[in-house]
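histidine kinase
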Amino acid sequence: MAEPPAQDSDITPAPSTEAIQATLSELTTPLRPSRMVMLAGLITCIGAISIIYAAVYDHLSIIEIITITTAILVLLCLFGSFGWRRLQAIHQRLRDSAYQLSAIEQQLAQAAHETDRLQRLLVDAVNSVDEGFVLFDDTNTLVVCNERYRRAYPTIADLLVPGASFSTILATAAQRLGVAGDHGPQDLRQWVEDRMRRHLSAPQPQECQLTDGRWYRISERPTRTGGIVKVLADITMAKQHEQELASKSKVLEGTFDAMAQGIAVFDTDLTLLTWNDHLAPVMDYPAHLLQPGTALQAFRDFDFQRGVKKLPAPHPVDNMPDPFSPHDDTDTLLSEVELPDGRHVDVHTSPMPRGGLVVMYSDITTRKQTEAALQHSQKMDAIGQLAGGIAHEFNNMLTSIGGFARMALRSPEDSERVVMCLEEVTKAADRAASLTSQLLNFSRRSLSEEQRPIRLKDMLRDLTNFLRPLLGVRVDVDVQISDPDLIVSGDPVKLHQAIVNLCINARDAMPEGGEIQLSLSRLTHEHSEASRRLFERHPLLSANRAYAALRVRDTGTGIDPALLPRIFEPFFTTKEQGKGTGLGLPMVYSVAEHMGGIIDVESEVCVGSVFTILLPLCEPEKTEPSKRVSRQSDFNGEDFTILLAEDEDSVRRLITMTLEDAGCTVLTAENGHEAEKIFEQDQDAIDILISDVVMPGLDGPALTRRLLDLNPDLKVILMSGYSATDDWKALTEGCGRTFLRKPVVPDQLLAAVQTLVNRVE
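Structure:
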């Protein structure tokens, strides 16, 4: 008989693979008849034993024994037919279950293998990320932790293993690091509880600095299963960059506010982004404008309403943006404005690479006053040098005038000789008038920034005669003009002075004498290889523009190459002590820059120097054909009465004779007060006032104003040996008024009178 089965233990060990295979093999073996016979015999034996036992101990009768035996035999017969089939069915079901168990076992093995593979992949992935990573399950037990996280906490790295409790890790860390204070276990428990609450609440990412100085960003997020994922990112480098940027930002902000210029930054929508502290005092902008988001147009409107004047562009460059008018250009602009209080401000507008504008406002009032004073000083210095040459030239002219006049007086009967002498006197007088005119133009102050077309050929022609007495007899002047139609825009007085300064420097570089060559030509980028190099040296020049090239070449000592970079610095001079101010070349540089051009210098020691001024060309103004000036004999003034106010007797007599010869009635006065009295007595008969400007007592402009108050239709001619001022021009700009510069020749005077009387008002 088989041994009785062992009693079940509390925990049944899982069967081994071999046991499962053996059982399956046994179950899948078909039942054979021999086995059935053995089973029937076994049952018969058991029944016989039971009968014998019952007969012995229970005193069964023979009939009872025979009955039991017969029942057993009947059961055996029934078992032989029905039992067999039943056992076959049970056996089949067991075999099917065994096959199913085998399939499940294979699936479990595959799942275990895949789980192991995925677990290894997860561990590799977690360890390969740049951030520290740790995962706790819903019981706050550590599931996985990578090496980067452990390296961030070296003090507790040994605790960061799967299965460790978060509370245990916290408590141990607090003890090792001493973060809970010195107040005993109660403080430790409180600290751990606080940290646990923070841990479970999954707060927003936070930044912290560890004891080793490194910075980390800590992010905690809950999982769907109730756990916590914690990611630790090392942001030490980012923090260092942030601190560096903050430091640089403070430096830039300090620099921004420390700049003497006012600066405003506008975004792509042309609204104010930021500004510095000097913007308000430089431009007098009110506080309500200096707010983020204020439109650039609001500043323009404010400037227009308070009368800010935009002065003529210092250099006529095409397509440049205007900060005081809408524009879409991307070029840089340097313009100048005049504030209502008289201050001058440079406005420098620059576009930013990604859109928007930076506008810098510089108060240049003091600089302009200094420049004007320096320029005037330069003029006076040049005039001092001119004195000797001018005196020499005037003596020659006076010699001609006096000599020919006396010669005519000696032979009054010889009409041809008298006419020849008077013609020479006239020529000498014309030369003297031309010389004084140029001297006045050169010496007058020019603070009006007058911008007008300048025909360079005419300027050089007039300048040549002016320069010869200035440069001396040992210096030859050669003028070469290759293009006579070149016109630029600028202040003619300043340009005149700039060329004179260059010629004076050239003369000083040739103490033993030499040659100065003045040349004028048209220059473009493609003109020659030399011109291309010149354009490369000066990026401000536009390759698409044509320029007038004014060159002053000398055969002097040249300039040391080491000194060339400094020659345009104010007060820097290469001359001996006391022989130079160091202001001439800076003045030339300033004039060229204000006219939109540049100045270039090439020099070789012991050979000479070449200074080139490049100025942008402009189109000539369209003028009406000039009318022929009437000769003295063509004008008949019998119907006109003229009031003449002139304090110089000889000039008064000359003008009176000229007008009376033309048929005019002339009333003369020696000063303004006398002329006013004459006009009050007979104002209805007087048609024209001719007055000198400079007179004792009541001068010409004051007299003119008084008489115009009495008769606004009075025609006026003002005369002076000085250049016309803005005040004089204002008086003579109206209809029926004009200005004549002395010396006034008879034909010129009569032409002016005829123009006034013929003008239709």
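The radius of gyration is 58 Å.
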